Each structure stands twice: as C-alpha cells, then as structure tokens.
Amino acid sequence: MLQELREAVCALHLELPRNGLVSWTSGNISARDPDTGLVVIKPSGVRYHQLTPDALCVLDVQGRQVEGTLRPSADTATHLFVYRQRADVHGIVHTHSPYATAWACSGKPLPVYLTSMADVFGQPVPCAPYIQIGTEAIGAAIVRWIGRSPALLLKNHGVFTIGETAEKALQAAIMLEDAARIVSIARALGPIDELAPEEVERQHRYYLEQYGQH
Q1: CATH number of the domain within which 41 lies
Q2: Which among 45, 78, 173, 204 could disulfide-bond with 138, CB atoms 3.0 to 4.6 Å apart, if both were Cys?
Q3: How confident is the model at residue 214 (pLDDT cuts 50, 70, 90)?
Q4: What is the model's pLDDT at position 203?
C-alpha cells in the first residue's frame, strides 16, 4: 500500500540526521496521500539507519492503523489533528534541531533577520507555549499559532513544519535551523536589525512568484 509514498517518506527521514536536525530516534516525518487521504508516518523509537519503506506505518486521519506492524510515532495524534484541520497540508516534520530549539526555549518568536527567512517564512516564526506531548493538544496549537508560516517553534520542545508536500515541510525545517544558527552567531557579535515588514513581504512575494522554475 502506498509503496511510492513510503519510499519517498523513508528517504526524507534520512535527511533529518544528515542535516543535523535530530538525535538518536527523536523527530519524525509524515505525508498524506492526496488520493486516499491515508497518512504514512515513522514508527516510534526506530533508529533512522534501520528505517525501511515497509517499516513505516499507514493510518487513516482518525488514527486507525491500516498497514504496518510497528507502533506509530508518539507524535501521531499531533500530525493527524493538523491533517484533519488543514486540507492544504500534505506533509509534516517534527525536529529538535539545536539552534531552532534553543530559540524555542526562550518562548519568543524568531524575527525575520535574513532575506532567506523572508523567502521561506514570510513572517516571524511564531512560538507556541509549552504543551505536553502525546495528545492532540500540540496539533491544536500548531493550527492556532502557525499562521501563514510553514514553521512553528514549541516552547521547551522543538520545531514543527508543514507543507503542501513532505519535501516542502522538510525544506522549511532545514531552512529554519540554518537561519537560527546564523542569527545566533550574529547576535553573539552584537545587536542586529530585523528586516522591515514591507521588505519581508516584497521578498516573500518575489520568492513565491519568480524564484525557481515555473
């Protein structure tokens, strides 16, 4: 079932440790199949080098496991809540990437200091309050706090990103960690200036409409 999507999601999971976004078995990626509505997600507690397409779990958006023998991620309820509330979202990534998570510990949004942030996020990356894991509460916080951004910081926890595909959600997670790292280094050198809101909007619009191949 969903073999092609399983293979794609398995390959994307390998990008998490490759890009320094996770440690040991933390973090996960899910993707929703646009035709069936079924969701492919990482099994709980399995190390990344041991993942295979057949090891991934397939569920419906109500949480019923329709394929796979392993128990799905502890964050499954979070992913499924977002999918039920956001028809435009077909990929979700959760990481504890170091610099972005360090910023999340502050409980403050990450301002737009870089043109690359304006490109991908189009606004400051919001930070939701601390919420206990394992229920739909984090999913509800994502829907409430994320706005038009593809990324959300969760206080004392980590990062969630969303996208029209799982690959787009992964791009947002990688770009967020890169931005948080650069900003942390720059702030250590002294005060830095945010981009003006109108410049953020202009840059974001240019990125969406003219960057890349269309």
Answers
A1: 3.40.225.10
A2: 78
A3: confident
A4: 97
How many domains does the chain contain in total?
1
Query: Coil, helix or strand for 118?
Result: helix
208: CB partners within 8 A, 6+ apart:
none
Which residue, among 156, 119, 123, 121, has the nearest Cα to 141 in the 3D structure? 156
8 Å CB contact between 32 and 9: no
Do residues 153 and 110 lie in contact, with contact meaning Cβ atoms separated by under 8 Å?
yes
Does the pTM exceed 0.70?
Answer: yes
DSSP-derived pairing of the beta strands 127-128 and 151-154 = parallel
What is the rounded CA–CA span in Å between residue 160 and residue 142? Answer: 8
Are the CB atoms for 126 and 109 separated by under 8 Å? yes
Helix (H, G, I), strand (E, B) or coil at 35: coil
